[in-house]
């Protein structure tokens, strides 16, 4: 369960942008950068576990307090909260814009009819209250292991469909020539344009190994945050059965290795399907090929499910700190004590 939880914490919405990152860095450069980030993440987790052992605590805020007093505690809490808010916002952003589109596609609606269930704001509120809030109120991470396992299964399904689509889609795809097909040409120019398209088809479907362009800089943040799971490491460590630093390091190694393989495969097959024409959001690129496709609708639903079930894992360090703050509740007057009891 710990491997599922940590893997779910690592895997985020950034997986949808890895093909775009590969298209703007090249296959070899992308692999080098991703491996570098994975190694740095493993080493930083190792340092985190060593720090927890030396500091004698598995709570980030308590480690900060022992190092720098009250400012250290609040700095640790603030940094973790800001990081988790950013991650959670990206997940809810996907829910807001993808869920109404999935509903519209299942209902076979050409355009948004303006119904309330096609409103992204309502979708975020309903998902937050109906799914995220109940899971976030669970007192330990063990229960979230089942939802994390299901979330990872959804992403494995996404990867499987991505590989399958690569094998059946031709190259070049018609929308590769969208710009050329929109041009107005006369009969004498048509033959030349056709020859030009045939000549460029080989280049369009040839993978590039090293790429440097204006978009390369935008891919670096995608890769830099690919393995961020550090706020969840110590809470998972604290609930590990028969815990030891070596056992938690093994959990971290397995989780990062599994996500590294999934990242590489999803980026590679997404890139080899659309090459330089892949968009920043991989699933949106498929809409240029399919208007209504049941399998892709299921994939979009699976991705929505996966990112939704990741939010409670992301929120857990914040709730974990709330419990830490409420440990001295008995010293408070009745109203504050009652509030802490509800939080706990």
UniProtKB/TrEMBL annotation:
<feature type="transmembrane region" description="Helical">
    <location>
        <begin position="294"/>
        <end position="316"/>
    </location>
</feature>
<feature type="transmembrane region" description="Helical">
    <location>
        <begin position="143"/>
        <end position="164"/>
    </location>
</feature>
<feature type="transmembrane region" description="Helical">
    <location>
        <begin position="251"/>
        <end position="274"/>
    </location>
</feature>
<dbReference type="InterPro" id="IPR013057">
    <property type="entry name" value="AA_transpt_TM"/>
</dbReference>
<feature type="transmembrane region" description="Helical">
    <location>
        <begin position="74"/>
        <end position="95"/>
    </location>
</feature>
<protein>
    <submittedName>
        <fullName>Sodium-coupled neutral amino acid transporter 4-like</fullName>
    </submittedName>
</protein>
<dbReference type="Pfam" id="PF01490">
    <property type="entry name" value="Aa_trans"/>
</dbReference>
<dbReference type="GO" id="GO:0005886">
    <property type="term" value="C:plasma membrane"/>
</dbReference>
<feature type="domain" description="Amino acid transporter transmembrane">
    <location>
        <begin position="1"/>
        <end position="324"/>
    </location>
</feature>
<keyword id="KW-0812">Transmembrane</keyword>
<feature type="transmembrane region" description="Helical">
    <location>
        <begin position="21"/>
        <end position="43"/>
    </location>
</feature>
<keyword id="KW-0472">Membrane</keyword>
<dbReference type="GO" id="GO:0015179">
    <property type="term" value="F:L-amino acid transmembrane transporter activity"/>
</dbReference>
<keyword id="KW-1133">Transmembrane helix</keyword>
<feature type="transmembrane region" description="Helical">
    <location>
        <begin position="116"/>
        <end position="137"/>
    </location>
</feature>
